[in-house]
Amino acid sequence: MTGASGFSVSGYGPERSVWARLFARDSLARRLDWPILLSAITLSVIGAALVYSATRNRTELNQGDPYYFLVRHLLNTGIGFALMIATVWLGHRTLRTAVPILYGLSVFLILLVLTPLGATINGSHAWIKLPGGFSLQPSEFVKITIILGMAMLLAARVDAGDKPYPDHRTVLQALGLATVPILIVLLMPDLGSVMVMVIIVLGVLLASGASNRWVLGLIGTGAAGAIAVWQLGVLDEYQINRFAAFANPELDPAGVGYNTNQARIAIGSGGLFGTGLGNGSQTTGQFVPEQQTDFVFTVAGEELGFLGAGLILLLLGIVLWRACRIARETTELYGTIVAAGIIAWFAFQSFENVGMTLGIMPVAGLPLPFVSYGGSSMFAVWVAVGLLQSIRVQRPMSA
Amino acid sequence: MTNIPETGRTPRVQIRLIIIQVLVFSLLATLGGRLWYLQIREGDAYAKEASGNHVQQVVSPAVRGSILDARGVPIADNETRLVVSASRTDLLKMKDDGEAVLTKLADVLGLKPKDVMDKVRLCDSETPQPCWNGSPYQPIPITDEATPKQALQIRERSEDFPGITAEPQAVRRYASPGDANTAQVLGYLSPVTDEEITKAEHTNSPYLRSDMVGRSGLERQYDQQLRGKAGVTRYEVDNLGRVMGEAKSDPAEPGANLVTSIDARVQRVAEYELQKAMKEARKEFDDNTGENYKADSGAVVVMESKTGRIVSMASNPSYDPNAWVGGISGKDYARLTGKKSNYPLLNRAIQGQSAPGSVFKVIPTAAAVNAGYSFDGPYQCSSSYNIGSQVFKNFESKGYGPISLGRALEVSCDTVFYRLSHEEWKRDGGNKPKKNASDWFYKTAHQFGLAKETGIDLPNEVTGRIPDRQWKQDYWKANKDSWCRTGKKNGDYAERIAYENCLEGNRLRAGDSVNYSIGQGDTLVTPIQMATIYSAISNGGTMYDPTVGKAIVSADGKSVQEIKPKSHGKLPMSKQTRDEIDEALEGVATRGTAAWRFADVGWPQDKIPMHAKTGTAEVYGKQTTSWFTTYTEDYTVVMTISQGGTGSGASGPAVRNIYDALYGVSDDGKIDKKKALLPQPQKSLPKIQPDGSIDAPKIKKYVPQEEATQESPQPATGDDPAATVPSPNTGNNRDTRRRTDRSKKRRRTTE
């Protein structure tokens, strides 16, 4: 009952039994942020439908079982949901104490990717093969541990009341903490995750109240880093091509520009109402690659139309809106930073993912939170939801 | 942590959180806007693109329609053959560009490896035939005569023959019923070129990569109708090309059949007789040149007088149209296009033009009447006509005294026409032409439709030429530089002519008008023009556009679109003049220059009134051209042999034999209706069954009269090979004697 003890540490309300607390007037359930929860569940369910539509006849992937991906997606959602409950139960403050261990574990896992245990899936060397046909993408968990780790460092002295803002030394430590896994992920190379992590760092720094110099400095470094990466040839040919295809979509529509072109055709052909689930010819014809993962939004665009795809954006908007509220309303800087990190993560990853299918962002292998198929990503975003809920339930109710 | 101060909410953090929120929502707004743009604003365009994305078209070519003769006998149809083709794209993927495979293939097919390799190379300006003229992406046929054994060998060892296929395909067949090959009229097919595909892309009849296109003759003229419409089956496919379902499909519409007015039997007679006449002419000695006649080319046209429909049209030298099927070999191509073989691809009935000589005379006759001269005359038929120092002789310098225009036609008196034409020339101002010269002789020729296409439904007809003032002017302009360069006042004949032309070639001189009046000089006509004019005289004055196509009948026989005879004008003569000329032309056949081919040798003139006109045109530097124009009530037969001798001499027997075959006339003048091939023009159209089959009569091969009587006492049947081979041995029976008799009379009469 660590959750209970964590709760008691917050010091609000008398101690009650778990069930009583759950259903009491000011209970945990009552205080949960329901809009986020319902939006996340809805997104996951829509995602399940889209994943099913995208994979039911991809026999080379689904091993002859049209429900293979659907079942797994729902299973992942369920596990993710359980992880969220566990996270709420534990509370983000309890987790704070475990941050060094979690951080160490996640860095160890991404290091494993660089060893022969690592596997390349869909051109990105970001996976660890597990026995039983499962695979893990540890960079998803690193996103969380970077947020938690930086928040811990940056908020420590502020929350203790020592300082109004984190000092330079603390910021430097926090940046160092983030840089280590980012560099490792860059070596994989998993450029999409690196971009997300950099944005997370930016969001965390912003919310921590660190000096403007740090924020601007980080933006400058990010730009310089991008140029350096480009110039030093760290990028693979395919990654350069993705950018080239983004800059010029007409480029080689059969080759590099193919994905984005087909994705745009799929979404564009959906119109207002879409073709109906399972009726999209682009989807059934499998013209868009990676349609159950990175390009899942194209299924929504084609089969559910503007209304369906717009609903996904709306639900993501609700999650982000509520997250912003949580960030603003929590009293501790730690909670604020964690929420802001999650906002930066979700916002950028959604923007990049949907943006690439719409042709306004270059292609990068990033899943759409809740909607895309993929266990690691699903677990990570649900843990993030759990963190947000935890921050929310543990702030004092308005008096 | 129990006493958390409110510092977590410092203003800086608060402001930054609001900045983050604004940023986040502007990102979402961007996505929403872009989504609206793609789906709502541009949605239709993308939907269209999407539908084009996953539809794969499988094209099944339409079966090309048959070309039928007037009774339904196919003269061009299709047969299934085993075609061995090579895919260039596959061959080029191999290290040696497929050389090893092709060599192996040549071995199996019993061909030379080089021949096979030549066939798969692409044609360009420097590559001689054989080469592939079609699309490089289409399988290139190596042979369409593979035996089942060869095809099996290739198929069973497909790993040894990558890129090679052996499949049954419908290929064009020129059936040559009864040995009538009709080559130039039918034309030929060759693969469609990339240019043509692009050009026809957006018309209602786009080409397919695998299409064969008519290149000449009927195949070209009626290409669109014969070709039909290829079937397109549209499959919805996924990105790997796997079929997901069938979309809207257009079934193939087989090409329509073209029913022609050609009668295969008459065609065979015409071809055979033309060939024979030319052979015979080559045996004759030409006094003028001191060598035998060359008879290098010839043509014969049999036309329905009342409709302008072509019953047969033969051109010689000829070729086997099947040479084109399945890609032409280098040897064949060289032969077909070479000067040595005298261009057998030319259809000389519509593309051969030469001076008409005396067959032209009906035109100056009508012109003279139109200019106000009386038909009855009399006009002096002297043995020669003088203009200054120039002497224009009558043919063989014979005089007939004062005669009518009709008699002048009968005996083909040149001097009568010399005088009339010269007189008109003088009336028009002579060397100083009046501004509004009436030019009756030239104007009338134009009214006869000369120097213009007759409008026959065959491509590339030539116009011939009337050397009127305008033409002289144009011609002089185009040639004066070369004339003035080569001309010499006191040089040889050619140089003197050039010299003269350089000085005054633009002017219509007295001599020009005299030469022109008897169809000499620069006058050029085609056999089809002459046939059109003479059939118009026969039918009372209507000049029909000659037609070979008679009807277009859909493959199931349900839709019949008749090609009705169309006229392009009336002859420029009154009914009376027509009747008088008609009478005179009958006189030619009964007592004039053609009598020894008809009335004198058993033609039943009372039953089938024959009209004729002979012509022997002189061509500078060449032997005379033989012209023979004839007509009955129903048919007009025009024949010409270049460098063949006199009109009735060289062409006469052949024309007579064609009529004998048409009407079933035997040598003693009896008409045997059973032997008559076509005593009346074929009126009805052949019946085509819904399943596409055609009720066509069996064709008996043509057996020339001489051989028929000599070889077999019983009537020859088409199935008896012994009777079908024309024997070169003519023996010394009665018919042969008669024939010799006919030729011995050669030159006895004037032309």
What is the oligomeric state here? heterodimer
* Largest sheet descriptor of chain A: 3 strands, antiparallel
Number of domains of chain A: 1
Q: How much helicity do the residues of chain A have?
A: 55-70%
Tell me the domain tally of chain B.
3
What is the CATH fold-level name of the largest domain in chain B? Beta-lactamase
Nearest-angstrom radius of gyration of chain A? 21 Å
Write a brief caption for the model:
Chain B: Belongs to the transpeptidase family. Chain B: GO terms for molecular function: penicillin binding; peptidoglycan L,D-transpeptidase activity; serine-type D-Ala-D-Ala carboxypeptidase activity. Helix content of chain A is 70%, strand content 3%.
Overall description:
The complex is a heterodimer of chains A (399) and B (751). Chain A contains 17 helices and three strands. By secondary structure, chain A is mainly α. Chain A has one domain (32-394). Chain B has 751 residues and is α+β, with helices and mostly antiparallel strands. Chain B has three domains: 59-260, Penicillin-binding protein 2a (Domain 2) (Alpha-Beta Complex); 264-335 and 525-689, DD-peptidase/beta-lactamase superfamily (Beta-lactamase, 3-Layer(aba) Sandwich); 357-517, Beta-lactamase (3-Layer(aba) Sandwich), CATH 3.40.710. In chain B, 36% of the residues lie in helices and 17% in strands. In chain B, a hairpin with a 7-residue loop joins strand 23 and strand 24 (625-631). The longest helix of chain B has 31 residues, at 11-41. The N and C termini of chain B lie far apart (135 Å). Residues 1-8 and 710-751 of chain B have low confidence and may be disordered. The chains are: A mainly alpha (399), B alpha+beta (751). At the A-B interface, helix 10, helix 13, helix 14, helix 15 and helix 16 of A face helix 1 and helix 2 of B. Chain A: It comes from Streptomyces flaveus.
